[in-house]
Amino acid sequence: MIYLFSGDDVKRRLKSYEEFVKNIPQDVEIFKFNRNDFSENQLESFYSGPGLFFKKALVVFSNVLEYEETRDFVLSKLPFLGDSINSFVFLEGKLSKIILDDFKKARAELNIFELPKVKTERFDNFLVANAFGNRDKLNLWIYFRQAVDAGVVMEELIGVLFWKIKDMLLKKNFSRFSEQELQVFIRKLSFVLPEARSEGKDAEASFEKFLLEAF
Question: Of 97, 152, 197, 199, which alpha carbon lies 20 to 30 A from 19's?
Answer without folding.
Answer: 97
